[in-house]
Amino acid sequence: MPKLTDPVSFRCGLVSKNRVALAALTNQQSEEDGTLSRDEESWLLRRAAGGFGIVTTCASHVSASGKGFDGQLGIYADGQLPRLTELASGIRERGALGLVQLYHGGVRSPSRLTGTQPLSASSFQEAREGFEVPRAATLQEISGIIEDFVGAGVRAKRAGFAGVELHGAHGYLLSQFLSREMNTRTDEWGGPIESRARILREITRRLRAAVGEGFAIGVRLSPEDYGFARGLDLDETVAVAAMLAEDGVDFVHLSLWDFRSRSKKRPEEHALPLFRAAVPRSVPLVAAGKIWTSEDAEEVLALGADVVALGRAAILNPDWPIEHTREGWQPRRGPLTPAEYAELAVSPRFATYLKRFPNMVAQD
Ligand SMILES: Cc1cc2nc3c(=O)[nH]c(=O)nc-3n(C[C@H](O)[C@H](O)[C@H](O)COP(=O)(O)O)c2cc1C
């Protein structure tokens, strides 16, 4: 079994110096027009300096109409490139592979942020306060969305990032297409899982053709329903991972939320070995979800992952990849005050967003 400190190679030719990644973390620090702010840059560069082999940006919208959060990073316009280029250089200089997570919110892109009714694979209702019923994307709009993802990926390459992670998880647009419940289309973009996965496959293939080798294209998937993600089936998600591996993705990232949980569909099994069996060994599996200690991380590698991705532990422990090798070291846990967060390159704005997550923020 590999160690966390061992390098890991991707078939595009890139190598991460270790097996510890910073997971994509929305932090609401970008400017109104999606331009990277100094605070957001500091937050990411601090983790690159702290030894993370892979540093992933927050979910970054690929079109103005795909915006899902206030203060979200954008990668849909060339005007956003100069600041992204500075970030990519900073991450590279600190020895990490920088990835941009490419995102479209679909039904989670509210008109308040985009000025237009949300779209999705199909129209549907949800019993949620303030829910805006989406309209089904037209064929032309689907082509446009694919182009937006490819355009954003090409922009990430031009900025000097090592690669991108397609956000196919958590019930956002690409996950809405994968969903049996949110995608009830009867054309070639809906129906059997091969068709519901078509949009992700098209993006992967076209992006690969546009960027060539030497640039990582990964995908993040939710194996099963959780939070906004619904209508996902474990076996279908395993099949999607295998299809995407065939199409040329460099890694598959499984968002587990809690790595200790067994699968919902087959409670006697863990999802990771199922994905490991279906995806060729040349395609590393990344896994995230309540990984705090090195023992947790090693357990995740033992289950079949090649790389661990840290979210909350990385917010609280910017030097995790360096510190975890020290005998007896224990990660810091929340809650922290905004003043304490500021010392970890987590600005008051990010700390405010963290209040929605239990046990993260204490009163100043
Ligand atoms: C503040 C915060 C922001 C997040 N933003 C994103 C995001 O932009 N994209 C994404 O795929 N997941 C996002 N997630 C999920 C994390 O990447 C991660 O999978 C999850 O927090 C579980 O890992 P953890 O227990 O190590 O935090 C976010 C989680 C948190 C806590």
Strand order within the widest beta sheet: 3-4-5-8-9-10-11-12
Query: What is the name of the CATH topology?
Result: TIM Barrel
Broad shape: globular
CATH arch. level architecture: Alpha-Beta Barrel
Give the low-confidence spans.
Answer: none
Give me the Rg, rounded: 19 Å
Number of helices: 14
End-to-end Cα distance:
43 Å
What do you see in this structure?
This protein is of the alpha/beta class and 364 residues long. The chain has a single domain (8-333), classed as TIM Barrel, CATH 3.20.20. The chain contains 14 helices and twelve strands. The protein has helices at 38-49, 81-93, 111-114, 139-159, 173-178, 193-196, 198-211, 234-247, 271-278, 294-302, 312-316, 320-323, 338-342, 348-354; strands at 8-9, 15-16, 20-22, 54-61, 97-103, 119-120, 135-136, 163-168, 216-221, 251-255, 285-288, 307-310. Helix 2 (81-93) links the parallel strand 4 (54-61) and strand 5. The chain binds flavin mononucleotide.
List keywords for this structure.
364 residues, alpha/beta, TIM Barrel, eight-stranded parallel β-barrel, two-stranded antiparallel sheet, 14 helices, 14% strand, binds flavin mononucleotide
